[in-house]
Design goal:
There is one protein chain. The chain is of the alpha+beta class. The protein contains three helices and six strands; from the N terminus they run H-E-E-E-H-E-H-E-E. Helix content is about 25%, strand content about 40%. Keywords: Transferase.
């Protein structure tokens, strides 16, 4: 995930206000506790409106419980409704849980963004991943 723990103060109502008609946001809760989200932003220009950039985050203690799969199912429903053909995202190459989730949902690695992130003073590569929808 791109955000450090102290940067994760997620304000759902403020975020909803920034969503345009081209965007998607869904949250996940367990027993009333916010535990994750998935957002997608489509291109505004006609030529790239078929592509959406995806960001997903799930609190670690709630990973591996099917929440990510539920979020991706909602994303794909939205994408088909909005005629989105391509979903794309980036993920740190050492985030094995996320990579596994993305591959489980049909994403493939397209390339590497070298030294794209700096975590604890160390530069980390990211995979660029995508999924083409039928």
């Amino acid at each position: 995930m791109m955000l450090e723990p102290e940067e994760r103060r997620f304000d759902f109502s403020r975020t909803i206000g920034r969503i345009s008609r081209f965007d998607f946001l869904v949250g996940a809760d367990v027993d009333g506790k916010f535990v994750g989200f998935l957002s997608a932003k489509r291109g505004n220009a006609n030529r790239i409106r078929n592509t959406a950039y995806v960001v997903v985050g799930i609190i670690e203690e709630f990973q591996h419980q099917g929440i990510g799969s539920q979020l991706f199912e909602e994303l794909e429903r939205w994408a088909k409704e909005k005629v989105v053909k391509r979903l794309e995202l980036t993920v740190m190459i050492n985030n094995y849980a996320a990579i596994s989730l993305f591959q489980k949902h049909g994403f493939t690695i397209e390339g590497v963004r070298r030294e794209a992130m700096c975590v604890d003073g160390k530069y980390i590569d990211e995979f660029y991943m995508s999924k083409i929808l039928d």
